[in-house]
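Quick entry, no commentary yet.
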Amino acid sequence: MKAVKIIAISFLVYVGIVITFESLIGFFQPAGETTLVITTMAEDGTPNDRVLSRLESNDQLYVSANHWPRAWYNRALENPKVQVTLEGEKGNYVAVPVTGDEHDQVNDEHRHSIMFRILTGFPPRYFVRLDPR
């Protein structure tokens, strides 16, 4: 019974760490040279900005949903016409979900460290290719 309590408490502490880490990233949205801002539209037409890491593969621009909170990703799938601010320049793009071999290639080129995966709670990772329109 004591082992079950230790495991349960350890699990709850881990979940707390993941929630704290994910919340802090969402709140602070750290930006830099390797990030971009994607603007997606809510159902009511309200624009929503999210800072994301910029990924490049074969001269294509990608972003990934690699956290549990992923409202931006769901909005981009619902309305793929997005705006991207990259290096201070705004442009219009189409968000294209990435699957199959293309997904595997981008994932292989941009792997996360085990520490990042632990801190984020091992969420599934989805990619979006940003095609200029």
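second:
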Amino acid sequence: MGSAPQPFIWYDVMAPDMAAAGRFYGAVFGWQMADSGVAGMDYGIFRDGESEVGGIMPVPPGFVLPPMWTGYVRSADVDLDARRAVALGGALVQEAIDIPGVGRFAVLADPGGALFNIFQPADGATMAPASSSAPGHVGWHDLRAHDGEQAWEFYSRLFGWIATETMEAMPGQRYRMFVTGGEQAGGMMTKFPGVAAPHWAFFFNTDAIDAAAARIEKAGGTITLAPMEVPGGQWIIEAKDPNGAGFGLLADRR
């Protein structure tokens, strides 16, 4: 673990039809999609104006899970952090890979099976995380863990995340919120029984929840959680894109 908590700095989504997915997210968020420009790599970049929001790639051959959004946590040494994750009870899903001129990453699973990536930017690349309130960017990271207490022990020791507040989501169910820097970053808890598998859910900032929900449905997506007010007065929804990749939206108003 470094001297400061390691934040999420990137996100991408898998799609069997990248062009169709690009049109969907463009309709929902106003993002533009362009090729990454990395030779030999089929990977697109989503931009909100001049700001890069995330990436998009084909579903890897043999991937057995549905298309999904994945988050990348900054690492100063991918190989060291991968070894530490395994020692803490996690699993190495994909050994570290170099992307020339971009950085080095590895795919991991926490002790409960939730997937996440670690990423070490190439020399000279900053890739500072956007503000949690920046329009179109991720405003909240939510882990639905196999075991919330076990997950917190794992991530706090691996990345230095700091707990800020714990609330009771339901009787006997604790939701722990955490920071990865100066801003509140997210929360985690044991998943509800109806949730099929442990996973990270990412909530993107938008203008107003009802209008965003209408855009999702018009573009061919599905609302899986109707507009709901959360502590602090914000509103969220959860949805799936036409390929089945889940994501959330967060707004200050309905």
